[in-house]
Design goal:
The chain is α+β, with helices and mostly antiparallel strands and 230 residues long. The chain has three helices and twelve strands, in the order E-E-H-E-H-E-E-H-E-E-E-E-E-E-E. It has one domain: Glutaredoxin, CATH 3.40.30.10. The longest helix has 14 residues.
């Protein structure tokens, strides 16, 4: 899937100032695998989170359990690399499934609902630095945000499939029919932003799958803004 950027003219002058925390959705990155026997309970938790308006729940399937006898059909080595980047940023010695990383900050075991809910609540109370707006256009999405705290931010565009059921025939989950939710199919950095000038551009996209845009310090730091078009 290809993405193209088209800069928009920004009219008027907006003075960049420090902004207060904004209400906005909390991003839950769920690292999972069809070859992981301890993941299905966490998959169910993610399914419940996906129903909430204040959460953007995203399942990133990793490939490092494929050797156990079943190759995850949704796995992407780039998602494994992203999880490793978070581990390095947190000085963690290894990665695991099921793991949930919440707003790029909180790292919890995805099958422990109380840990997940506590981390969600903490990030919801902290708020986002930026109020990100998305407007659907014909064949594109308009991405806007007012300036605020300066920094090195990555503007990332994510696409996902809302649901898919898989008949798993081998590996640790052999013989199970498992339903997966919000399966990420692509995660692309589409721009860099300094936070001091208005953010306003179009990202042209293909297909009709949901669109998520995430603002993040680098690509393994805190998530400072997010929005979704379902």
């Amino acid at each position: 899937m290809r993405y193209f950027l088209a800069a928009l003219a920004v009219f008027g002058f907006l003075h960049a100032t420090q902004v207060a925390a904004q209400d906005g959705p909390v991003v839950v990155e769920f690292y999972t695998s069809q070859g992981c026997s301890s993941c299905p309970p966490a998959d169910e938790i993610l399914r419940d989170l996906a129903k909430r308006d204040d959460v953007i729940a995203l399942a990133l399937h990793v490939d490092y359990w494929d050797y156990l006898g079943w190759k995850d059909i949704f796995a992407n080595p780039a998602f494994t690399q992203r999880q490793h980047a978070y581990a390095r940023a947190a000085n963690a010695s290894s990665v695991y499934t099921p793991q949930m990383i919440i707003n790029g900050v909180e790292q919890v075991v995805g099958s422990r609902p109380m840990q997940v809910m506590d981390a969600l609540q903490a990030q919801k109370e902290a708020g986002n630095l930026f109020d990100l707006k998305l407007t659907r256009l014909e064949g594109a999405v308009l991405i806007t945000a007012e300036p605020g705290q300066g920094g090195d931010y990555a503007v990332q565009l994510v696409r996902y499939m809302p649901e898919e059921t898989v008949d798993i025939r081998h590996g640790e989950n052999a013989g199970r029919n498992l339903t997966y939710t919000n399966i990420v199919t692509s995660w692309d950095v589409i721009a860099e932003w300094d936070g001091r000038s208005p953010l306003a551009f179009e990202a042209y996209v293909e297909g009709d799958s949901p669109i998520v845009v995430i603002l993040q310090r680098s690509t393994d730091g805190p998530i400072v803004g997010a929005a979704v078009l379902r």
